[in-house]
Design goal:
The chain is α+β, with helices and mostly antiparallel strands and 273 residues long. The protein has eleven helices and four strands, in the order H-H-E-H-H-H-H-H-H-E-E-H-H-E-H. The chain folds into two domains: 69 residues, no CATH class; 192 residues, 2-Layer Sandwich (Bacterial polysaccharide co-polymerase-like), CATH 3.30.1890.
């Protein structure tokens, strides 16, 4: 019983102290509100853009090409392999290429793109390595549950630039993988054609012909005007309002800190008195 009374008295005394410090608490609230307003005026608001991508397995893989095989010899892994979950390794290459130096080197040639980034970056980005570091810091790739889908997120003060950047990153990364696959497939076609010209055995010629047909299908798929490694499930779009700073949170935080500061000042004065 005495414990409850002591607790009640302590709480009562606390409210008494708060009431006595009300003037300084009100001053702290005003200062906190003013600081919050200044902070919101000074800080640069940022917008967030999101894009969801998925493996382009249905078209870009060699699955369709492998379905035309005539015997088991044509099942050799001359097309892109897949992992245990069925997603193409080119899709995972796309995810890591997205923020790599090779993509950064291509983007570095875009003067408008570089100018938009350097407007808010100090020191300015001038090399592919520094641009790659910037992308690794600001581009986030999140898995969507247990699916192979990925959500790509980017934050930037320019609402139009933030969504355009995700589209540009997808295009550059996907086209770079497509280019490499096309060159690889053409190299295999040249090799198989030479091997076919040197082979007289009917069984070997049949097997080489099947492999050659598969590579020609892969080459055809690589030349199609569509996404090769990653398809866009949800196009890139920017948030209609800035996602940072959160005005209610900023005002609440600074007001609480201001009132707490006012109470601390009153308590220090009481202790000194």
């Amino acid at each position: 019983m005495s414990l409850n009374t002591t607790s009640d008295m302590s709480l009562f005394e606390l409210f008494q102290r708060i009431w006595k410090a009300r003037l300084l608490i009100a001053m702290g609230l005003g200062i906190g509100t003013l600081v919050a307003m200044i902070f919101l005026l000074v800080v640069t608001p940022t917008y967030k853009a999101e894009m969801i991508v998925a493996p382009a397995d249905g078209y870009a893989l060699g699955d369709y090409a492998s379905s035309i095989q005539y015997d088991d010899i044509a099942a050799l892994p001359f097309w892109r392999p897949k992992d245990a979950e069925g997603a193409s390794t080119d899709f995972y290459r796309f995810i890591y290429t997205l923020k790599g130096a090779a993509v950064a080197e291509i983007l570095l040639k875009d003067a408008a793109f570089l100018k938009a980034i350097n407007k808010y970056e100090t020191p300015n980005i001038t090399t592919a390595e520094s641009l790659s570091l910037y992308l690794q810091k600001h581009i986030r790739v999140d898995p969507l549950g247990a699916t192979p889908l990925r959500r790509i997120v980017y934050n930037h003060p320019n609402a139009e630039f933030v969504a355009a950047t995700l589209r540009k990153l997808h295009l550059v990364s996907d086209q770079m993988i497509r280019r490499d696959r096309r060159q690889q497939s053409q190299s295999r076609i040249d090799y198989l054609e030479n091997a076919l010209a040197r082979t007289t055995n009917p069984e070997q010629r049949k097997g080489i012909t099947n492999l050659l047909m598969q590579q020609e299908y892969v080459q055809m798929l690589a030349n199609l005007d569509e996404a090769y490694a990653a398809i866009i499930v949800e196009p890139a779009s920017a948030s209609p309002k800035p996602t940072w700073p959160n005005k209610p949170m900023v005002f609440g935080l600074f007001c609480i800190l201001g009132m707490l500061g006012g109470f601390v000042v009153w308590s220090v004065r009481q202790m000194r008195g």
